Amino acid sequence: MPADDVADKTEDPTPRRIQEAREKGQVAKSVDLSAAFGLLAGMVMLNWYGPTIFQGMASLMEKSLSLDNVPTNGTLALDVSWRTLLSHTALMLIPFFLALVVVAIVTNLAQVGFLITGKPITPSMEKISPLKGLARLFSKRTGIKLITNLSKVGIIATVAYFTIKSFLPQLVGLPGSSFIEVVGHAMELVFILGLRMVAVLVILALIDYAVQKRQLWLDLRMSKQEVKEELKRMEGDPLMHQRRLNVARQLAAARMSQAVPQADVVITNPTELAIALKYDHDKMHAPKVVAKGAGYMAQRIRQIANENGVPIVERKPLAQALYKSCEIGDFIPPELYKAVAEVLAYIFELAGKGYRRVATG
What domains sit in the chain, N to C, each tagged with a CATH number? Predict the structure, then answer.
């Protein structure tokens, strides 16, 4: 990627870009992490299940070589014996390998989740292009990866060296020991060496996974222009969005212009909120909100009410309660029946006396 392009990528990747990258198989994953936890599981299984495997194999080997209860024909006897040995050995090793498979699957799921995609293996000219291959081979990222791998080898070799060095006093005395003692010391050395190396591998793999995750985040960063283009794809052209918003406002204003003149009263806050109510005793079980608005819309509702002689009553708590609890077309809730009834009774009383518009109650 050119340096100029990298400099322009200053914005965090959007959820859509991350999802698209995931669908292409671009996810943070450390191969070393799966291998390290697999080796750790193998060491634990060998420590716990290894003696059982060795004892079982020794017993099977002894029985197989004794040729007991098998045909007297030599070739047939060996064939039956070794088939028995191999089948029993396979049965003993199944739990061991099953544990390794489970650990590998769990480690991969923990890194990338459940993901099935064939895009990473889809043939493309970029993947088979010799020039692209050479560019990747001699890229800065490849150089860093090489140095990182050499550093890992150096760290593991250092751990191995100091572990073996600590066992040298015991190894020097082995020539005078029995076979069982030699095997025991050797197994202890191998287990401790393996456990320490696996611990180092797990730590290095976790660091590698964190680096991979950070690198993926940097690779997916976007320029301001890319963010704008993605917003256009998700929400449409901003100009079209503004036009749709204007049309919706015009339609709402048209409905309001028709509804407010038919209202019986407009309840205000007095200036920030306005709610127009209509009540027909013969057709409605409760007053209905036919228009409501805040700010400019409230001012417009009051203006239309004034132009059409609709009473305007200032009731701050009631206006706030109606605005929060009702939408246009809703009947008022029962807890507001009494307060609204008082307003309507006041309005109808004034109307009976010849008044039509009320400034305040």
Answer: 27-219 (no CATH), 247-352 (3.40.1690.10)
